[in-house]
Design brief:
mainly alpha; two-stranded parallel ribbon; PIN domain protein; PIN_dom; VapC50_C
């Protein structure tokens, strides 16, 4: 979310998207408290300008995807005028299907590398802020980069690593 504050792009989401990511995160990470995740959600809504997409639900029924439970994401993107869905689940948004709605899907690693190409200094600042915000427990630079790589952000880590000792 620190990248969303750089103004390199306009982050957009819905309450349905919030519900989905919070439910999935709490299912995978039983060590996390629901109250803390709810607080994160509230902070996202508070600090990322105009991110909340509303009144898109009427479009859900017309969207055709392999998993009907993902239609709300494309409907929200269409309603918001977004051209890109950033998701780890690329397979859920087949190129030929989402193209009909003037939307494409991109993996977060590719997305961050594209932002890096636009303005690597802003990306480095956002990454540094994110790492420094991790206080319980704090993360050493290498541990932080290893965590990013384990989450599928391999290209991003490759771009960051040469700058890591000085910037992150």
């Amino acid at each position: 979310m620190h990248l969303a504050l750089t103004d390199l792009y306009r982050a957009r989401w819905t309450d349905m998207i919030h519900d989905e990511w919070t439910r999935n995160l709490l299912a995978k990470r039983t060590d996390l408290k629901p109250e803390a995740i709810q607080r994160t959600r509230e902070l996202m809504d508070m600090h990322v300008r105009d991110a909340k997409v509303e009144n898109f639900e009427h479009l859900i029924a017309v969207i055709e995807l392999p998993d009907p439970d993902d239609r709300h994401v494309v409907a929200a993107a269409m309603h918001a005028g977004a051209e890109l869905i950033v998701t780890m689940n690329i397979k859920d948004f087949p190129k030929e299907r989402v193209a009909k709605y003037n939307v494409s899907a991109q993996h977060p690693d590719d997305f961050i590398v594209d932002l890096w190409d636009l303005n690597k200094h802003k990306v480095m600042e956002a990454v540094a802020r994110h790492r420094k915000s991790m206080k319980n427990p704090p993360k050493a630079v290498e541990d932080y980069l290893d965590t990013m790589a384990s989450q599928g952000l391999v290209q991003t880590v490759d771009a960051l690593r040469p700058y890591a000792p000085w910037v992150i």
